[in-house]
């Protein structure tokens, strides 16, 4: 389409160029909106086929029935207002598409935002270029969200809502949010020297992070904790200071990994059934509360982390009057059961 130098054409083409809107798309939308406005103002024409034509040079609009001009007197004002509303809508849609395209590239990364409003089900977040949603299921239970408060979020995904509009979904409860916080604070994770093997969370209460390094000179747990605990403290502060973080070393040997996962409890015996994916863990009565955790959170997280259904078995503590040994604690007895062993 050639650009004609008049007010309407110049405005249309300028908006189209700046906002990424196709001029033909805008014209077609204007014509459809004008027809809808005509039917609304003149419902007696609802049983007739009406078409609209917008002059691309002047912006003048006319309505036709079987090539007969049926444009009502004074309808130009309604058509002009309709055209204005359509162009504004198209601008907003184009800006939203552009913004969503940029945010699509940031899925899985951290992003800052300011809370606009909160309702029973969600918090709505201003990301500068678009509005995002923080569903209740993605919120930390110990945090109270209020307008104008700013937080760091995980850009979890972009999905369609109930009416088919794309929306940005954020999270502060996802395990990946915790992983990205550590990646931000721990250079060894960002560089690949330390790998996060698994993260499990009960958001707002406790989380377990299993880390590993293929470089013998790098202590993966120490790298995540940082000197005097400064790195893990930054992450804890970001979580509202209430979520306890257990950073443990991942092990290729499942029994060693299980022992680490149940820390700080001391384990006496481990019997693993590889086929059934179960583990019977024997501990002294004094260690059982540590192994189980408040409300079962420690054993449940350890189970999720290792992929084993863990059964904690308690045995009596040694006689309190017996001489205390000064030797290091012995390693737990380990049994691995599998189909071959059962045969």
What does this structure look like?
This protein is α/β, with parallel strands linked by helices. It folds into four domains: 7-103, NusA, N-terminal domain (N Utilization Substance Protein A, Chain:P, domain 4, 2-Layer Sandwich), CATH 3.30.1480; 110-171, OB fold (Dihydrolipoamide Acetyltransferase, E2P); 174-250, K homology (KH) domain (GMP Synthetase, Chain A, domain 3, 2-Layer Sandwich); 261-343, GMP Synthetase, Chain A, domain 3, CATH 3.30.300.20. The chain contains eleven helices and 15 strands. It has helices at 7-19, 23-41, 75-104, 175-185, 187-191, 220-225, 230-238, 254-261, 288-292, 297-306, 339-342; strands at residues 51-54, 61-65, 68-69, 110-118, 122-126, 131-135, 150-160, 166-171, 195-202, 206-212, 244-249, 269-273, 278-284, 309-315, 333-337. The strands form four sheets. A five-stranded mixed barrel has the order 4-5-6-8-7. It has a four-stranded mixed β-sheet with strand order 14-13-12-15. Strands 1-2-3 form a three-stranded antiparallel β-sheet. Strand 12 and strand 13 form a beta hairpin. The longest helix has 30 residues, at 75-104. It is elongated. The chain starts with 6 loop residues before the first helix and ends with a helix. Residues 1-5 and 320-328 have low confidence and may be disordered.
Short description:
The chain is of the alpha/beta class and 343 residues long.
Helix and strand layout, with pairings?
Elements: H1 7-19, H2 23-41, E1 51-54, E2 61-65, E3 68-69, H3 75-104, E4 110-118, E5 122-126, E6 131-135, E7 150-160, E8 166-171, H4 175-185, H5 187-191, E9 195-202, E10 206-212, H6 220-225, H7 230-238, E11 244-249, H8 254-261, E12 269-273, E13 278-284, H9 288-292, H10 297-306, E14 309-315, E15 333-337, H11 339-342
Parallel strand pairs: 6-8, 10-11, 12-15, 13-14
Antiparallel strand pairs: 1-2, 2-3, 4-5, 4-7, 5-6, 7-8, 9-10, 12-13
């Amino acid at each position: 389409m050639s650009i004609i130098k008049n007010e309407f054409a110049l405005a249309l083409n300028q908006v189209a160029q700046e906002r990424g809107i196709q001029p033909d798309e805008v014209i077609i939308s204007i014509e459809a909106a004008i027809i809808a406005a005509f039917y609304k103002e003149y419902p007696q024409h609802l049983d007739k086929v009406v078409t609209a034509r917008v002059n691309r040079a002047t912006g003048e609009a006319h309505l036709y029935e079987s090539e007969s001009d049926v444009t009502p007197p004074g309808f130009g004002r309604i058509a002009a207002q309709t055209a204005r509303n359509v162009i504004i809508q198209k601008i907003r849609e184009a800006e939203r598409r552009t913004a969503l395209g940029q945010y699509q590239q940031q899925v899985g990364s951290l992003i800052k935002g300011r809370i606009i409003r909160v309702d029973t089900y969600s918090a709505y977040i201003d990301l500068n270029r678009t509005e995002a949603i923080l569903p209740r299921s993605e919120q930390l239970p110990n945090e109270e969200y209020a307008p104008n408060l700013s937080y760091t979020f995980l850009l979890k995904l972009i999905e369609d809502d109930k009416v088919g509009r794309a929306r940005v979904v954020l999270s502060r409860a996802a395990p990946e949010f915790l992983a990205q916080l550590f990646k931000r604070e721990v250079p060894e994770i960002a560089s690949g020297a330390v790998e996060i093997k698994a993260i499990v969370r009960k958001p707002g209460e406790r989380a377990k992070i299993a880390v590993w390094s293929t470089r013998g000179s790098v202590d993966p747990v120490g790298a995540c904790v940082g000197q005097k605990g400064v790195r893990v403290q930054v992450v804890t502060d970001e979580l509202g200071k209430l979520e306890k973080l257990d950073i443990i070393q991942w092990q290729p040997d499942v029994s060693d990994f299980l022992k680490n996962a149940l820390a700080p409890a001391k384990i006496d015996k481990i019997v693993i059934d590889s086929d059934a994916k179960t583990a019977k863990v024997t501990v002294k009565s004094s260690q059982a509360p540590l192994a189980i955790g408040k409300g079962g959170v420690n054993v449940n997280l350890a189970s999720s982390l290792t992929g084993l259904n863990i059964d904690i078995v308690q045995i009596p503590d040694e006689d309190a009057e017996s001489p205390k040994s000064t030797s290091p604690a012995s390693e737990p007895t380990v049994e691995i059961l599998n189909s071959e062993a059962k045969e």
